[in-house]
# Entry
Amino acid sequence: MKRVIFISCIIWVLVSLIAIPLYAESRIEAKGMVKARGNGMVNVSGSGDVEITGSGLLKTSENAVVEILEGSGEQIEPEDGGTLYINFNGKAKISGDGIYVEFNGANIILRAGGHGTVTLTGTGLYIMGGVIGYWNPVEKTIIIFSPSEG
# Structure
């Protein structure tokens, strides 16, 4: 009986250790512009301006104003609305109220200003409100941002 309880406890601990990274997240709230560089997935939702550079897949909401500043990619209009750029390699400026931007890829450079949330998954660094931090594949980094005062 003791052996069964011991094995059950070991299994519970192992399952817990495996599951923790699946739910791990880091939350930061600050004022000012969010800047980030890295590889992985970046999601931005809110109101304001987003400038993103990189190689990968770019998806924007239907109400977003998208300006491709440089580069290339195949533009698709999905049935669920918005715009999708496959094999995007370049720089885009996205703006509007209540917008959503998703970028999956490499060599990402992000600048986001206004009000909203940035979610980073992958590897890289961010600068927000004078704080430099790192994002990694083990946890989601969620940054809630608003305009700086003054």
